Amino acid sequence: MGMVFPVSTHNYELRYWLAAGGIHPGYYAPLKGDVSGKIDADALLSVTPPPQMPSTMEAGTIYGYCVGEPWNQQAVFKGIGVPVITDYEIWKNNPEKVFGVSQSWADENPNTHIAVVKALIRAAEWLDANNNGNRPEAVKILSQSNYVGADYDVIANSMTGTFEYEKGDKRDVPDFNTFFRHHATYPYYSDAIWYLSQMRRWGQIAEPKSDEWFMDMAKKVYRPDIYAIAAKELISEGKLDATDFPDFATETGFKPAQTEFIDNITFDGTKPNAYLEQFPIGLKGQDVVK
Question: Is the pTM of this model over 0.85?
């Protein structure tokens, strides 16, 4: 099966889904020089660029793939495949895309950094406003050849609050793409820790780590302090309302324990090692790949 990169959300979501069904997606063993991710695998996962996913499956090189839109809907339009599950069904309201900059760039360009974050927050709010009413205009932009380049109808199939599971089976999924609702733009430490936990589960993080290590790493990368500065400026400028954001005075950066996963396993971001112990497939505790 295809996924877009070894450290992509798609790799971890595909692995999570396979393991939830009892199919081992394979381990990484960087200490042994094996970064194929195929040790003990029942299913072999390979990297495929997103726009090439449909044609690669049509050629028979892969049997399926996990990728962002519009390349799932492209398979439906071409009549070569059907989506069997969405990441919304694997983990409800899961985090997906990220905006990141280097520490050196952030240090050298603090005002620009804040300005870009403000612009992204405003764009996210615009995309969700009026019950997704601005999405058709966004689809027109995305369908241009200098952006995504896929046909308008293919992109609109998911961007406008629907999803087509097979030709003619189009269902309302208003939260399939969520940009601002449910505090979607806020950089929760717990989201970072979930991805770190999956890196550890599949051996990309080769050695055992303490809960404190997970927390320290999340704080190095996720910056709710910068987000709060940008949000407060937007509030003071009258662009957005304080009720659009978390309560910055009480926000801890951790979501409450999350239960809405396909395998019904609860994730508490403050206890990543205890979380890993719950899985029947995957590394846990002091495990290393031998």
Answer: yes
